């Protein structure tokens, strides 16, 4: 609905020093479409630190002046922000943006900065941030906010930046809370890990009660984001952040901005035929809304985004209005103003599939979207397109997987382009329908049907991976039980009635291997181990659905009788045993074995084992930290194989160099670098939440193409992959950088 008055927002930022509040404001204001004023206590006194009342006064003046304001101070407790909430004229939207980033990150940024005017840096900063965070009170709508956006990682922050920079003076944002996720133990581990390494002077905190104020005075601009966002795009992870609700027609109170929580497969598409092909906009918008509605009625957890480059685009406003009339879920379909080739890097909106309004020859050139997509994707798109089709007739679409070398793939995370050809009403272009709109609408409908079917086909083939990623993000658990197209999920949770696919096939192959013990167990040591463990080499039924071959019992035996393996084990405790992996797949590769009977593998783990999982994690963490203190260049991951080859629950603590002669084949690589590998932090969270861990034990994961775990480039064989990873310094994918999945030196 159009509104006839300009809206003013009062956005109260909240976050510890180092959380990036000032950067947030700068980023929004750089491209903002409405006038904003930033009220910052650090600079309020003629460029120097000032007082809270100065901030209140300036904010009130700006609001009176019709400007929207950002209150850029810590505001971590209710009392600190109360006066700012109350402040100002009526009819101001009062919002909170909570930069609730991991303490470790805020501390690390604050500690690293130098020349801070309030001297909030070094070990002192660590202590201050830590103490402030202990007093943190997350805001509630009842405090007087109409909208609260929680950002817990940089992707969320980017989403919020996009949301606010896209607001024009007439826009309002939906009310409600957006983006809130459960705080979990991982963050605490992060703090502990960091504080151990940071010198905390005794003197800090002597100013006791006035901590909040004194610290907020010391806030400064943070420019040292370490997050590399776009380059880290993980395939099929569509974590859009709070999407830009371009449409001012989003119904108030809708959850239009809530998608930051989930990684939703997303198709971005331009309006087909309405630009160069001069199709009537009213009629085209009817077709779009009709087709979107039809498609969404059968689809599950996916999103469609209609994109246009220009603000005030007629087709976007028509579609928004009609979609709103039809009550189409604005979480699943919305409009977006931006360049379809830069939706993520410029707009913070992740789309794994984009549509191209193509020409019949499927060639680059022309103008508009077609030229932009071919040019952004580079020559590899033309080659890949040729492999799929030589030409296209109106009403049809062709799906083209984007080569991983394409810049569009690397920087935007786009995995597929779908070329679509719509009906043409432009006499200057081929196949003009000469205003025959009954045929035109029919062809346009066909074009959108083909486009959406193409998207559905991509999603169907990738359902398993998508679900795994979505589950990994730990969000919207109820939706995780549906697959993308409304079917029951497969392979999510261990189920005693359900045959675990990889278990059986892997077992067979494992046993084959075991006969000659060619690979991992090909040594005399392994032979000896097998004999020692089970002299008769018989198969053991462990009481679960899986039967373990004798060769697979070595770890179990070590866990139960560590004293008999004194030369092999590194540490023996009541609950766990630590040992070097006999066939390490990286420079540093340890196993932490559970000593409890009856938990052969992750599938056996239940809520009552949570403490044990935590112990295993803590022990693994300690070991990794020891390695890290010796070699700061190392990076570690801790996790479990969804379907392990060896009996007895064991946690892999593995450095990410994968520099080992024992890493020989696709299975080895993929078992550590696909969703088959379950990060320990996620496993603990799932067991806590659902009572069991999610298992991604589909065989196809182990036979996936070989992709670099950092830049995601594909490689034809292990030697080539190894040579690539020895040099690749690309940032890790965003999903790995989140939630302490990767362990780095502080
Ligand atoms: P998984 O596939 O998770 O069961 O991994 C089992 C791990 O155990 C592999 O990384 C093997 O290299 C390792 N391994 C196999 N036998 C032994 C052994 N006797 N001692 C230590 N590690 C072993």
Could you describe the 3D structure shown?
This protein is of the alpha/beta class. It has three domains: 8-100 and 138-178, P-loop containing nucleotide triphosphate hydrolases (Rossmann fold, 3-Layer(aba) Sandwich); 256-533; 550-744, HIT family, subunit A (2-Layer Sandwich), CATH 3.30.428. It contains 25 helices and 23 strands. Strands 15, 16, 17, 18, 19, 20 and 23 form a seven-stranded antiparallel beta sheet that branches. A hairpin with a 6-residue loop joins strand 21 (706-707) and strand 22 (714-715). The two termini are 50 Å apart. This is Transcription factor bHLH140. Pfam families: AAA_33, DcpS_C, Macro, zf-C2HE. Its main location: nucleus.
Bound ligands, each once: adenosine monophosphate
Looking at the structure, what is the overall shape? globular
What is the number of independent domains? 3
* Beta-strand fraction estimate: 5-15%
What's the end-to-end separation, in Å?
50 Å
Radius of gyration: 28 Å
What is the mean predicted local confidence, pLDDT? 76
Largest sheet: 7 strands, antiparallel
Q: Which blocks of ≥5 consecutive residues have pLDDT under 50?
A: 183-262, 464-545
Helix content: 25-40%
Biased composition (Polar residues): 488-497
InterPro entries: Histidine_triad_CS (IPR019808), HIT-like (IPR011146), HIT-like_sf (IPR036265), Macro_dom (IPR002589), Macro_dom-like (IPR043472), P-loop_NTPase (IPR027417), Znf-C2HE (IPR032566)
Biased composition (Basic and acidic residues): 498-510
Region (Disordered): 485-513
């Amino acid at each position: 609905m159009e509104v006839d008055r300009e809206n003013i927002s009062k956005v109260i930022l909240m976050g510890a020093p180092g959380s990036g509040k000032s950067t947030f404001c700068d980023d929004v204001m750089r491209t903002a479409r409405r006038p904003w004023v930033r009220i910052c206590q650090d600079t309020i006194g003629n460029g120097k630190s000032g007082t809270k009342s100065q901030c209140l006064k300036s904010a009130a003046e700006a609001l009176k002046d019709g400007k929207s304001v950002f209150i850029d101070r810590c505001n971590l407790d209710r009392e600190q922000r109360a006066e700012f909430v109350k402040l100002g004229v009526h009819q101001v939207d009062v919002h909170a943006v909570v930069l609730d980033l991991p303490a470790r990150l805020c501390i690390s940024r604050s500690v690293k900065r130098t020349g801070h005017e309030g001297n909030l840096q070094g070990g002192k900063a660590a202590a201050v941030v830590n103490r402030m965070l202990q007093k943190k009170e997350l805001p509630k709508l009842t405090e007087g906010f109409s909208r609260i956006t929680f950002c817990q990682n940089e992707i969320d922050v980017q989403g919020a930046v996009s949301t606010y920079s896209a607001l024009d003076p007439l826009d309002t944002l939906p009310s409600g809370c957006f983006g809130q996720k459960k705080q979990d133990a991982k963050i605490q581990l992060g703090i502990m890990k960091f504080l151990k390494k940071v010198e905390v002077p005794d003197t800090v905190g002597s100013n006791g009660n006035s901590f909040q104020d004194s610290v907020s005075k010391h806030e400064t601009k943070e420019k040292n984001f370490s997050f590399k966002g776009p380059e880290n795009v993980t395939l099929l992870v569509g974590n859009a952040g709070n999407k830009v609700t371009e449409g001012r027609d989003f119904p108030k109170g809708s959850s239009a901005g809530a998608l930051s929580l989930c990684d939703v497969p997303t198709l971005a598409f331009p309006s087909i035929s309405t630009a160069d092909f001069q199709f009537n906009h009213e009629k085209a918008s009817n077709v779009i809304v009709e087709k979107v509605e039809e498609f969404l009625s059968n689809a599950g957890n996916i999103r469609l985004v209609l994109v246009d480059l220009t603000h005030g685009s007629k087709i976007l406003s028509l579609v928004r209005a009609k979609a709103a009339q039809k009550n189409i879920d604005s979480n699943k379909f919305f409009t977006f103003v931006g360049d379809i080739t830069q939706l993520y890097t410029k707009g913070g909106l992740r789309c794994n599939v984009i549509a191209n309004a193509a020409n019949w020859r499927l060639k680059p050139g022309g103008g508009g979207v077609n030229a932009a997509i071919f040019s952004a994707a580079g020559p590899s798109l033309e080659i890949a397109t040729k492999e799929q089709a030589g030409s296209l007739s109106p009403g049809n679409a062709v799906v083209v997987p984007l080569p991983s070398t394409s810049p569009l793939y690397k920087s935007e995370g786009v995995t597929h382009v779908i070329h679509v050809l719509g009906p043409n009403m432009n006499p200057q272009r081929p196949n003009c329908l000469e205003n025959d709109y009954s045929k035109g609408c029919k062809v346009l409908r066909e074009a959108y049907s083909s486009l959406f079917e193409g998207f559905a086909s991509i999603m169907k083939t990738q359902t398993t991976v998508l679900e795994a990623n979505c589950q990994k993000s730990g969000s919207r658990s109820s939706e995780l039980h549906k697959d993308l197209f409304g079917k029951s999920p497969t392979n999510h949770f261990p189920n005693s009635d359900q045959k675990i696919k990889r278990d059986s096939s892997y077992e067979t192959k494992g046993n084959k291997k075991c006969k000659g013990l060619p690979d991992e167990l090909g040594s005399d040591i392994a032979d000896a181990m097998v004999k020692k463990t089970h002299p008769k080499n018989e198969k053991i039924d462990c009481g679960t659905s899986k039967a373990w071959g004798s060769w697979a019992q070595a770890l179990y035996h070590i866990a139960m009788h560590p004293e008999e393996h004194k030369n092999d084990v590194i540490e023996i405790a009541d609950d766990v045993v630590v040992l070097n992996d006999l066939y390490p797949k990286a420079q540093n590769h340890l196993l932490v074995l559970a000593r409890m009977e009856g938990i052969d593998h992750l599938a056996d783990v239940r809520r009552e084992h949570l403490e044990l999982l935590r112990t295993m994690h803590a022990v693994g963490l300690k070991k990794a930290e020891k390695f890290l203190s010796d070699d700061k260049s190392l990076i570690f991951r801790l996790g479990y194989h969804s379907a392990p080859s060896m009996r007895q629950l064991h946690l892999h603590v593995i450095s990410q160099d994968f520099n080992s002669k024992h890493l020989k084949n696709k299975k080895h690589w993929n078992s550590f670098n696909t969703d088959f590998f379950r990060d320990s932090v996620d496993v603990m969270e799932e067991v806590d939440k659902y009572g069991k861990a999610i298992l991604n034990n589909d065989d196809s994961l182990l036979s996936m193409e070989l992709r670099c775990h950092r830049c995601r480039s594909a490689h034809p064989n292990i030697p080539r992959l190894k040579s690539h990873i020895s040099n690749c310094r690309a940032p890790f994918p965003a999903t790995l950088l989140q939630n302490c999945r990767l362990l780095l030196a502080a």
